[in-house]
Amino acid sequence: MREKTVPAGAAAAGWADSAPVALRPKGERRTIQSVDRALRLIEILAERERPTSLGELAEAAGLNVSTCHHLIATLITRGYVLHAGRNRGYMLSLKLADLATAASHRFDLVAFAQADLQALNESLREAVQLAVLRETALVTLLRIDSMMPSHVEPDEVKKMKAAHATATGKAILAWLPESEMVHIVSVNGLTAYTENTITTLSGLIEELRLVRRMGYAVDDGELEPNVVCYGAALRDGTGAVTGSISVSIPRSRASKEYRAHIAQAVTQCAKGISDRLRIAHFR
Questions:
Q1: d(CA 271, CA 117)
Q2: C-beta separation of 216 from 266 below 8 A
Q3: Which of 9, 79, 117, 135 is deepest in the core (most CB within 10 A)?
Q4: How many structural domains compose the chain?
């Protein structure tokens, strides 16, 4: 049997990688060098507790700085690596954790939580939402409308870039690493939707500290001036935040006592869903 020859310059065009397996030593597995190197960089970053400089990464991976830079740039573009800032280096994002979480769940989050959210809606008669963070976009997966009058319909497109101004968004942002939160803010900005919207990074950081302390987030007329919303995070068996739920009410009904009632109902519902998520994770 005559061996197939590869034309000159074909390797650069990717022909060599499509050569028949029979031409390679028996038992040898084909690998793509660039993929192998990129995965090695991810493994190195996963072992580091702090951001790692380009030079340190190149040395640890046995690569020249130029090759390492191109691979890191690709991983940043794909969302797997974050640039921690000038002269600080690089670190992993949460994308791998998100993928692992998604792969570990054999159920749909909406289907899993819908009965709880329906019960919350029927109990309060107010609008209920379930949202997740998809890369940098806040996406509402489920909304159950209010049974009460005088409720403003939300603009879901506007909300996608408004994690800083929504209860569902802040409930998620509060539990992300600060570098990840800053990345989301840098992509979406801190748009002022009302006079109550937080528009500075320092203000948002302080707000998220308060969310962690209280266990729930508040949108006090920050997206829509006449709407108040309370939200709480959902956690799975690893402790990772998988999404958040919220209840929104018109400001006309937002008395101090009613606010406290809504906050308690939301946090209890989120805890119940999270408890079941933890059980489901270990099945």
A1: 12
A2: yes
A3: 117
A4: 2
